[in-house]
Amino acid sequence: MPRLPRALRALALTVAALLAATVASAPAHARPEPKAPPEFVALSDVDPTIVQEIRYVTGHNFTGRPIDGYRRPMCVLTRPAAKALSAAQRTLLARGYTLKVYDCYRPQRAVDHFVAWAEDLDDQAMKEEFYPDVDKSRLFLDGYIAERSGHSRGSTLDVTIVKLPVVPTRPYVPGEPLVPCYAPREQRFPDNSVDMGTGFDCFDPLSHTLDPRITGEQRANRLLLKRTLEAVGFVNLPEEWWHYTYRPEPFPDTYFDFPVARRSLTGR
User: Fold this and answer.
1) Relative to the CA of 74, which of 51, 56, 83, 177 has its CA 20 to 30 Å away?
2) Region 117-121: what's the mean pLDDT?
3) For residue 123, how many C-alpha atoms fall within 13 Å in the half-sphere facing its CB?
4) What DSSP assignment string belongs to 103-160?
5) d(CA 15, CA 47)
6) How many CA atoms lie within 13 A of 224 on its CB side?
7) Could you read off the pLDDT of 228-241 as tens digits, one per residue?
8) What are the pLDDT digits (tens) for 81-108?
């Protein structure tokens, strides 16, 4: 076989190198996002009267940034949990109140975001509001952050009560002065919730539902929420006045990772 001229050989090598680089750099086919099982629903489809203020789609949370996996400010729950919450809502509406949810189903990727944030001890941008008296190095030991969350099973939610008529909570302005989450209501970040003694996601023993230092109207408000939700099948986490899980859970051992988005709901 005759030898190729040197120029042709160089050209052939260049073309081969370009083809190899093109193949190597070609993007892999994106894996489709996981979908929710049909047992999951948008709360607004079951009960549009329940107020939704999904905090983790915003920067007003203990990390100071929107959380991975929250594509839309919407509450997603298993259908039994959503129906039970609607039953509780009817009870409260008759008394001049409404429920408000801060968080519902939470993807595992969001939990992973929390874990990564907790491991970065230098990132304490929101400490003054959400964990003023807790050393960040103790968030795992004290149980404030964990590698698994009941929220990812779809029947757990963070919830409060708002008096009717609802006055919207003003938006959080990044960089605004922070006030401890256990400060008197008129001092801490405004929330249209009735006074529960602390703000939502307050990493402090005062957030324990039955902490004896919470008295008067604040205690009455916590007990109203507790009695109303327990009457329809929810169980409170004693360390967090806002945290409730519907029992029995349809998925007691499954931790989902589909994004919080309408398109995650199968066929809807």
Assistant:
1) 177
2) 98
3) 12
4) E----HHHHHHHHHHHH-TT--TTHHHH-TTS-GGGTTTTTSS-S--GGGGTSEEEEE
5) 62
6) 23
7) 999 999 999 999 99
8) 999 999 999 999 999 999 999 999 999 9
**Residue 32 pLDDT level (bands cut at 50, 70, 90):** confident
Q: Is 129 a catalytic residue?
A: no
Cβ contacts of 40 within 8 Å, gap of 6 or more = 76, 77, 78, 79, 105, 154, 264, 265, 266
Q: What percent of the chain has pLDDT over 70?
A: 88
Longest dimension (CA), the chain: 99
> Is residue 172 within 8 Å of 60, Cβ to Cβ?
yes
Strand 51-52 to strand 97-103: parallel, antiparallel, or no bridges (unpaired)?
parallel
Helical (H) or strand (E) element with 160: strand 156-163
Beta bridge partners of 40: 78
Residue 94 DSSP label = T
CB 104 within 8 A of CB 246: no
d(CA 79, CA 61): 27
Q: Which of 217, 230, 239, 240 is catalytic?
A: 240
Cα separation, 29 vs 7, whole angstroms: 37
- How many CB atoms lie under 10 A from the CB of residue 165? 7
The amino acid occupying position 246 is: Y
Strand partners, 97: 163
Q: How far apart are CA 39 and CA 36, in angstroms?
A: 8
Count of residues in the chain: 268
